[in-house]
Amino acid sequence: MTDMTSTAAGMTAAATPRLKSWSWTELLFVAPYLLLYVVFLVYPLGLGFIMSFQYFDLFAGQAEFIGLENYQQLFSDRIFQGAVVNTFKFVIFTVPTFVALGLLIALALNRQTWWAATLRTLFFASNVLSVTIVTLIWRAVYLPQKGLLQNFLDVFGIQNIALLQDPNWALQAIAVTTIWWGIGLPMVLFLAALQQIPGEIYEAAELDNASPWQTLWHITIPSIWRTVVLVTIIQIIAQFQVFGQINLMTAGGPNNSTRSMVQFVYEAGFRQWTAGFASAAAQVLFVIMIVAAGLQFWVSRRKQEF
Amino acid sequence: MKLTTFVALGALALGLAVPTMAQAQTEVRFARFFGACEADFGTNTDPGTPSNECGVITTLTNIFNAENPDVRVVPEIVEWGPYYEQLAGRIASGDVPDISVMHGDMLINFVKRDMITPLDEAFTEAGIDVEDIAPGPRENVTIDSQIYALPQDFVTWLWHTNSGTMAEAGLGEVGAPVYPTSIEEMMEHARQFKQATGLPYLALTLDSNAMSRTLYTMLMQANYNLFPESTNQIDLHSPGAKEAFEALKQMKDEGLLVLIPDWASAFTGFSNGEYGNLIGGTWQIGDMVRLSEQTGGALEGYVAHVFPAINGEPAVWSSSHSWVMLKGGAATPEKREAALRFLRFLFENNIHWARAGHLPMRTSLMSDPAFTEMPYRIGFAEIPPIAEHLPKDVPQQRIIQPFIGEELLAALQDQKSTDEAFAAAEERVNTYLSRLR
Lengths: 306, 437
Prior knowledge:
The structure holds two protein chains of two kinds. Helix content of chain A is 72%, strand content 3%.
């Protein structure tokens, strides 16, 4: 038994490369960033975790330990439950679209022509706009009776479309806005990855009479797989944190159909003055994001191993 | 001495003197909402020019700064929506303004936390005649027999009326529309109006606050107590509350009431003559008067009228703006003196605030021709006795108001039943209030 244990331990030690011990010089180089990271991220994160077990009055600066009460109230809160569902729906609407559409546009525009360069610039241009400008534009698009969308639909005799006032469509409408706003970044990341693929591979595929579909599936996608994973993880993290466009376009309505988890946290913490309760909601969001991103990362690695 | 050396020394002396001169001015940091309108009123000192809150308060600040060269009031402007969130952040970080605007219903939340300085002695010191403050606004800012704020106005709920289209439907004359005195009569008027003009009789903005204020007003008219047992527990079970709401819903279903996505669209639609009445607030009167002068006839005979007593006795929801001195602000004797001087100036010039549509808070001004000769204000003399607000001990009224409004608007748009909406509103309010310590 002892032998088996020591053998297993020895195998583990052999499999794991020994990490080089750090030196003071190296620590000095990373110290400025490490300090900022600890002060502005690790410390508030820890403080938020502690606050989630307190009744915390942000104004008066008073805190009272209440154990798991915030979490108990949170999980029985109908509005929070709705916010969790809305956030997941939003991630499902947007993340696959960001990945698929971003890749599609990148594939279409990955060529050295003037029109491709113009379109790349156009697609990326929306990325530099602030959330206020984006929501102003899209509110005007979705405006009932007089909006751009309604004017277009009038041609087909479709009337009284009020997407942002319809609980069945409001979240999708915001998802479209978000995709329009943010598609530039996935596109640029995919373009950068596509340009790293050696041309010889495509030449070899051509000599082997590979179809465009076979080339895409067996050469392009595997070659840029790491970028696909990167874009997916970036978008999962970003879309779980959706807030600005929802707050400005629908404020969580109609009928609570667009309230996201971050908006819930914001409202509970700053508007409703229940910072401890908001912190509990923030911890739940944090765990969901870690699990979702981790799961995606794990699945991607497994797929890569095949 | 060479000329260049002389000029250089002179410039140095001036350079040293300028900061000293600037330091002689006491700065009063003035936190407020009401918007920013520097482009239009940044240098204006004529109080007769502006017609909205932003213009009036900017102009009054300009006048005060011009008349008091030793003081500089610096506005710190925050949008209305997140004002209290920002104020919370400032207080938490110790960056406390010297004077801050505050809604009357928010006072209790700050007073309970011992964050506002009582102003009784300060008013005596500044020469502000407390006896001239109307009983309603004074009661609104008095907690445990102490005055915590200088009221600025009465804010109340009303109907903006296009009396031209109302006259077209036989509902009065241009400039003198006829208003309903019961829900049944409102339905009759609305149908008559729709038949004659093809337009909706009433418009309500999809603003949760607008929905709540409308419900509050109708319940106050029915003399209904929303907090019968405790200020931490709302009761929305009244059949009367549902009946009042169902009347609005029926109007919407019949096309007599139209829901407008936002205030900008509501103003545009109203000024284009697209509906007879728009439910709104006193603070919009100044802008409506200006719009009515610019519409070229579409908005004929604009009239502002206190919310009609359609559900019982005359009563209307009201709130107020007030000025407070938060603890930690105006920390030096010079700053305190300057801040009090500015408060006295606002008190003395309260009449100008009425240009935005508000009622002045000074009793002596209610019968002053300077006020009564403003458009539509003569009819507002009836408001103070009928103006009501939620019990001021109810905490976080500005939070629970949208809870109610959001749920009821969902029912008004057929996204849930009336019963579900009232139950959900009550649950949200009571769950939230029970969470507070």
